[in-house]
Design brief:
single chain, alpha/beta, Arc Repressor Mutant, subunit A, Rossmann fold, 2 domains, 5 strands, 9% strand, globular
């Protein structure tokens, strides 16, 4: 079992793990950079569990023992720190075909995890919210910005929160319990993002998370989690899965807003006919 297969297994089985086992599995996945270079005794001490418990978790994940699991975690760290190492493996075969299939798999995985019920819950929460805060750090900020753009185009009150002149914690001060936060967090996970989300969660705001894994730290403070495919041998994470999710969620929201949403899109379309900005064009769609 390689690193990607391990992550997929945990995603599928996490909910049925006993509480103690789940906590161990979450730690191993989210702290792989530490675990990969710690002894089994050191990890057991950090988690306050026995070494036998770590061995049992490793076997539940399909390994002969803890040492085999540790080897996979080391490989995962290598791929994370040096994406070129993973790209080298792809280079041994047909690069275009492998990358094409990998991105197709990201979209298909995201599609499978976007249940109709969760989409409905997202739309209901967005319509009730006084303001929609969109948060992200690094590459995840691109996803947050697209959420922000779509919400604004629909005439909704949206706020983009990303690292700039103010920290994320500072930007959360204005949030109220009637607001909704949607936060995207792709690896590597950021401590400040986790702390900001925890603060917002304690305020009573509705929190929506978009991540690659239920083991992501922000999922502990989520009312509505969405998980996407983001596997990539280059650039850390692929954005096709997350962007696919943004498009589906906001498109369904547009229909759910009824006449209000259609009026906002019609106004947005009118702007495309402004010849002070755009060249004249026919058949514009929005």
């Amino acid at each position: 079992m390689n690193a990607l297969e391990l992550q997929e297994f945990i995603r599928k089985k996490m909910d049925v793990f006993p509480t103690k086992t789940r906590r161990v599995a979450e730690y191993l996945l989210t702290h792989s950079s530490k675990v990969a270079f710690l002894s089994i005794s050191e990890v057991a001490d950090k988690l306050s569990v026995s070494k036998a418990q770590l061995v049992r978790v490793a076997r539940m994940l399909g390994f002969d023992g803890y040492s085999d699991l540790k080897s996979v975690l080391k490989q995962a760290l290598l791929e994370q720190v040096s994406p070129s190492a993973a790209a080298e493996e792809v280079h041994k075969s047909d690069i275009p075909e492998k990358l094409r299939r990998m991105e197709q798999a990201n979209i298909e995985e995201t599609f499978k995890k976007l249940s109709p019920d969760s989409i409905v819950k997202f739309c209901e929460a967005a319509k009730k919210a006084s303001a929609l805060y969109c948060m992200g750090w690094g590459i995840s900020a691109l996803v947050a910005e697209w959420f922000y753009t779509r919400f604004t185009e629909l005439g909704l009150r949206a706020v983009l929160a990303r690292r700039g002149s103010m920290s994320l914690l500072e930007q959360t001060r204005a949030m109220e319990s009637s607001d909704m936060l949607i936060v995207c967090e792709l690896p590597s996970y950021v401590i400040e993002v986790t702390e900001a989300v925890e603060k917002i969660y304690r305020k009573g705001s509705f929190v929506v998370t978009l991540t690659d894994s239920p083991a992501a730290p922000i999922c502990r403070s989520s009312h509505l989690p969405f998980h996407v495919g983001d596997v990539s041998p280059t650039f850390g994470s692929s954005l096709l899965g997350p962007m696919f999710a943004v498009h589906v969620l906001t498109s369904v929201l547009a229909f759910n807003l009824g006449e209000e949403g259609q009026a906002a899109l019609a106004e947005q379309k009118e702007g495309l006919n402004d010849e002070r900005v755009y060249y004249p064009a026919y058949g514009l769609r929005y």
